[in-house]
Amino acid sequence: MARSWGEFFGDTDTADESAADQEGFFSRLRDSLGKSRRALTDQLAAAAFDAGDEEAWERLEEALIAADVGVPTTAELVRRLEARGEVGELGAALSQEAAQLFGEPSSLRLDARPAVILVVGVNGTGKTTTIGKLAQKLREHGRSVILGAADTFRAAAEEQLEIWAKRAGADFVGSERGGDPAAVAYDAIEAAIARDRDVAIVDTAGRLHTQTNLMEELAKVRRVIERRLEGAPHETLLVVDATTGQNGLQQARLFGESVEVTGVALTKLDGSAKGGVALAIAHELGLPVKLVGVGEGIDDLRPFDARDFATALLT
Predict the structure, then answer these.
(1) Which of 5, 238, 289, 308 is most buried per CB count within 10 Å?
(2) pTM to 2 decimal places
(3) What is the pLDDT of residues 245-274, one digit of tens each?
């Protein structure tokens, strides 16, 4: 059964969703990964997989790379399949090995009070929307939340985050356009402490990840957070747009070098044929995928479940 929000938030009572709700999300996840799954299966459907046929292995490698699994991760999956000896039903075997590549499930670290979550990612990935949906889910599970709008450069960023704060019943901290992002992050933590809030989520600017000044700015935001509250940020989530494929892997690598990313939220799977990048991020960078988004609705953001994702992608 898919992971629940209760498990993801570390609640003692995790029976917060019915089997029907979780099954419904799996159906949406499978639909969202349809393009990615076809990128794999179309190249393999011509003939039954024969482990003794070198051309069959080559077709498999090409199919995995076409789904943006990446060369190193493809090589590891193939190595694992070859080590089995008898592969059996290819989709099921691939799904099992892929789920193991994702590693153990990883939840949000919310044991501190306030727990500080720094959210980073390039513009257009769905970063602010992801923050809003996460805030709403936290509130539904009894957590008090404050949102800090440290993206002070994009005209609509603060307004969009404030709308989400109101929708989620969360407090909001912003600044004037062009203000110091690190100062906003500091003020958000100050407010969370003063108001005794459970979680502070800090949004950040997302100009092109190739710009050195952005990375320096994000590093500064992180340093200010660290100085204000010992152990913070407790989570640094990178939001990755699945449609960017291997470019998303490069984003994860560069952001990780600047701000010590602790996990990934993978968005826009419903428009992507490159869902395999989740495997590449987890295997090549050792970063856990923590959240997955399959649409615009509040219930289309869910805790990542490796077994469900691998099944939906590969079978």
Answers:
(1) 238
(2) 0.92
(3) 888 899 899 899 889 999 999 998 887 778
